[in-house]
Amino acid sequence: MHHTSLLTRAARGLAVLTVLAFAVSGCGAGAGAGAGTPTSTSASHTATGEQVPESAQPAERGPAPEGSDPEDAETRASSASLSGLTIAVDPGHNGDNGANPATIRESVPDGRGGTKDCNTVGTESTDGYPEHRFAWEAAEVLVDALEEADASVVLSRADDNGVGPCVDERGTFADDADALVSLHANGTEDHSARGFHVIAAPAGGRADEQVADVSEALGTALAASLEDAGLTRSPAYDDLVVRDDLATLNNASVPAIMVEAGEMRNAEDARMLQSEKGQQRIARAIVDALAVTLVR
């Protein structure tokens, strides 16, 4: 992959286009989540960002989930073109966050006049597959899919062996991009809970009303695209979730969404998130949603 890290950004492509009239945090750890107020959901599950034990060992990537697929997302070629656009990809958390508690507990701007912890460890599956590894693996697949669609890509972190970056920088690094996608997975205590949800922030952080509208349109399009790809939408959320407490989204000046791609503690979701096929589905859905929202 020929993508650009945080320290070597590609030049910004086309300006963000106005979206058509229609048109990712439960783990919250990598986005500085707190006791937010989702405005479009009546979630009954507890959305957590508990720190995983530092001794937890990542599991190997597992098999694809069983069952028939609506489409084979590993082989399906998308007709979407993102030529001229730069997409910022933020894989949540990082592999060495757990070994550096003092660093990730430092206070940083939350984008709305307050502060948040720099970062957190994230959640993990019951068999030890950590969210930070899912986010990194899914980001690698997404970068390939974006480049196949002729987009330029910038990443908030260069590998899965470091610390941070802090949640404010995970938003501001996208300033020269056309959109930001932050990749996470949820950590609900109830192991029977499953499904994805997508999050956008309202205006009032670094984004104005027009940018916030495009963020919401992008999030709505992504939720539909993920369902089309065969992923299960979380029944705890009606539609797009709008929250003003996520520092990554609040610090973004461009259209930005966070996807909680599934429930890490649900066995079926965890298998999907850990599989190459599941990661391919997520990546293709993101590319399709970006094309629907940003390209006329």
TrEMBL record:
Keyword set, alphabetical order: Hydrolase, Signal
Span of domain MurNAc-LAA: 174-291
Pfam family, one: Amidase_3
Positions of region (Disordered): 31-125
Transmembrane segments: none
Compositional bias annotation for Low complexity: 36-49
Single GO biological process annotation from the record: peptidoglycan catabolic process
Signal peptide per UniProt: 1-29
One CC-aspect GO term: outer membrane-bounded periplasmic space
Entry's Gene Ontology molecular function annotations: N-acetylmuramoyl-L-alanine amidase activity
E.C. numbers: 3.5.1.28
SMART domains (UniProt xref): Ami_3
Domain of life per record: Bacteria
Stored Gene3D superfamilies: Zn-dependent exopeptidases
Protein name (record): N-acetylmuramoyl-L-alanine amidase
